[in-house]
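Bumping with the actual sequence this time:
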Amino acid sequence: MKTNYQTTLDKELNIIRGLEIIPRLLLHSCCAPCSSYVLEFLSAYFDITLFYFNPNISPKEEFEYRISELRRLTDEMPLCHKPDIIVGKYEPERFLKIAEGLENEPEGGARCFNCYRLRLKESATIAAAEKFDYFTTTLSISPYKNAEWLNQIGKEMSEKYGVQYLFSDFKKKNGYLRSIELSTEYNLYRQNYCGCIYSKREKGSKKENVI
């Protein structure tokens, strides 16, 4: 039976409500639209630092535009606690290495699993080094991302690096729909592909097939 990660999250937030000190959360962010609802939801519970680490995104101009939109969003949103932002290095070669041999995998397959793992491993490393209380990712808000995989990897990295992973499935409780509303409200750029060259190629191929 699959775990209900929203229920797990709710239980953890109930514990956090009783704490005297606000815990620090390193929140891996893939883009502004995915971060919008997650920030709105979690900012009442955590001192959040966003970690924008996405070596899968191509081209570099896309990588830079997404981070500019994330910065604009955090400047404009009326959050309980304004988040800091850490921008990871743009290292597309790291993504290409873990995608070797999986270039023709469909979106949502083994290549994506490796990509999740790469980004969550880096997030856990930073969270441990900077002594954050928790780490997690915005990725589970997307209906196209595998929340089960994300939470399994998060658990693995939590045990390896000694930082608590915040189990979650942010698409629940209409989280994905709320992210669309917030994207409209703040006029956010909503990309039409995950970010990597393979997802962009697959998206283009599907468009051609439809036509």
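The tokens above came from a reply further down the thread. The chain is about 50% helix and 10% strand.
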